[in-house]
Write a structure and sequence with these properties.
33% of the residues lie in helices and 32% in strands. A hairpin with a 2-residue loop joins strand 2 and strand 3.
Length: 199
């Protein structure tokens, strides 16, 4: 379960470090609407967790998560988990894929690697997108594209970023391996503008 939580945490962290194509405008300030959307997602997470702990539950349920809820969650609830400043984020959900379009301010000397710091410090548009699927309690995230200011990022730099930003908090993250979905989730289906979770 610890590995599943690590992967789930990584996927949400990916949203904070990614860019993609979305129909909604970027969320750039914490508004009352964003706060409400973040609270909505948190109540859905709490509902899934509660159902996962109910040993007498016999029937599965479904709920939907929107792009706006994910954006708001990154801006409001995940700031303590993201080691850089998120200036704006726009999440895009398309069939089988998740992406985020974000502007991040990354402090200098953040990785300890001079070459990587030269590439990533400052305010940048960051692109990360990948395929996300889950069925029968097992999920898989395949990273497809990472770009900084429109320039493709080599795998070597991605490995350094994961090592410095993700592994300290989620040491079991391995993008090449499937993972157990947390909280009794059975299936995740990503469609246009929403993800449907069966639990």
């Amino acid at each position: 379960m610890r590995r599943a939580a690590a992967i789930a945490g990584f996927i949400f962290t990916v949203l904070a470090i990614c860019a993609g194509i979305g129909s909604a405008g970027p969320v750039s300030a914490v508004s009352q609407s964003a706060s409400s959307s973040s609270s909505s997602l948190q109540s859905k997470i709490d509902k899934i967790k509660k159902a996962g702990n109910d040993k007498n539950r016999r029937q599965s349920e479904r709920l939907e998560v929107s792009e706006k809820e994910l954006e708001s969650n990154v801006l409001i609830s995940m700031t303590k988990d993201i080691p850089v400043k998120v200036e704006s984020i726009r999440v895009s959900l398309t069939p089988g894929a998740i992406a985020a379009d974000t502007r991040l301010t990354i402090p200098p000397d953040s990785t300890g690697n001079f070459i990587v710091d030269a590439l990533v410090s400052g305010t940048h548009a960051i692109l990360i997108k990948g395929d996300l699927r889950g069925s029968k309690g097992v999920g898989k995230f395949d990273l497809r594209d990472v770009r900084v200011d429109g320039i493709p990022v080599p795998n070597l730099v991605i490995d350094v970023l994961i090592k410095h930003y993700v592994k300290p908090k989620y040491p079991n993250v391995d993008l090449k391996e499937p993972f157990d979905l947390p909280w009794g989730i059975d299936e995740i289906a990503v469609n246009t503008g929403k993800a449907t979770i069966t639990y």
